[in-house]
Amino acid sequence: MDRKGSEFAGVSVALTTPFVNGEVDYDRFAEQVEFQIAAGVDCLCPVGTTGESPTLSHDEHERVIAFVVEKTSGRTKVMPGTGSNSTAEAVRLTKFAERAGADAALQVAPYYNKPTQEGFYQHYKRLAEECGLPQCVYNIPGRTAKNIEPETIVRLAELENIAVVKEATGSLDQCSRILAETNLTVLSGDDSLTLPMMAVGASGSISVVANLVPGDVKAMVAAAAAGDFAAAREQHFKLFALCRDMLGLATNPIPVKAAMKLLGRDNGEMLLPMTPLEEPLVEKLRGSLTAYGLL
């Protein structure tokens, strides 16, 4: 089956946002963008959950989108987070991303206000009809408090600009239904589930751990896409402890920011209410990075 959004197959990186004294550190950000491009990733996803979008001002959010688009200069795709629990705000941010030159928009399910399934449908329908960019439906009920049910995604798949699903429900059953009942491209939103999801037909991932080891994530996804599941499993098990730490030690992006600091690629600063990883957990993380060969 030819899937809508297949140009976004592969490895997208949910970029962290570096800060210094409460402001975005654009010099460090440029280094991180170049690091990912050198690794050959397929797409960069700034200002998502990992990029601390909930605590950036609207002006900062837009500046980061424009900055990443400018720095990539077409060398890789850019799919910024432009979602909101206000449909009007999501439309505004998405139109900005389109004007800035982004390739697609990552649309988190409206959070906190807990829409009905019809509310989810109407939210994404408006985005699809009023914005020209391909839309990636980001379903992460662990954060948003409500699942976009497969039946709703089947309805959304009929809309021209709904192209991709970032599947972060943790349910292989839901992933399988979306793949079986739609022609949408599905990307894993949980690093530890990327390989299992690709085994049933997903096309790659929007990865947090790729902030640390993009080449290894790309090797796993490429092997799975080529049908070499023996090689993909080898990479999966190599990555597994790091994936577990990025999701298990504390709320994302606390662990990945701590890891970037240990690797000398970030100062670890976050915006409140996000706080640094507690010291005993830092030592556990240090052990994982050492075991992996990064320290």
Helices and strands in order:
Blueprint: E1 10-14, E2 19-20, E3 23-24, H1 26-39, E4 43-45, H2 58-72, E5 77-78, H3 87-100, E6 105-108, H4 117-130, E7 135-139, H5 141-144, H6 150-156, E8 162-167, H7 172-181, E9 185-188, H8 194-199, E10 204-207, H9 214-225, H10 229-248, H11 254-262, H12 279-292
Parallel strand pairs: 1-4, 1-10, 4-5, 6-7, 7-8, 8-9
Antiparallel strand pairs: 2-3
Can you characterise this structure?
This protein is an alpha/beta fold. It has a single domain (6-228), classed as TIM Barrel (Alpha-Beta Barrel), CATH 3.20.20. Helices cover 47% and strands 13% of the residues. It is built from 12 helices and 10 strands. It has helices at residues 26-39, 58-72, 87-100, 117-130, 141-144, 150-156, 172-181, 194-199, 214-225, 229-248, 254-262, 279-292, and strands spanning 10-14, 19-20, 23-24, 43-45, 77-78, 105-108, 135-139, 162-167, 185-188, 204-207. Strand 4, helix 2 (58-72) and strand 5 (77-78) form a beta-alpha-beta unit. Helix 1 packs across helix 2, helix 2 (58-72) packs parallel to helix 3 and helix 4 runs parallel beside helix 6 (150-156). It is globular, with a radius of gyration of 18 Å. This is 4-hydroxy-tetrahydrodipicolinate synthase. The record marks 49, 112 as: Part of a proton relay during catalysis. GO terms for molecular function: 4-hydroxy-tetrahydrodipicolinate synthase activity. Catalyzes the condensation of (S)-aspartate-beta-semialdehyde [(S)-ASA] and pyruvate to 4-hydroxy-tetrahydrodipicolinate (HTPA).
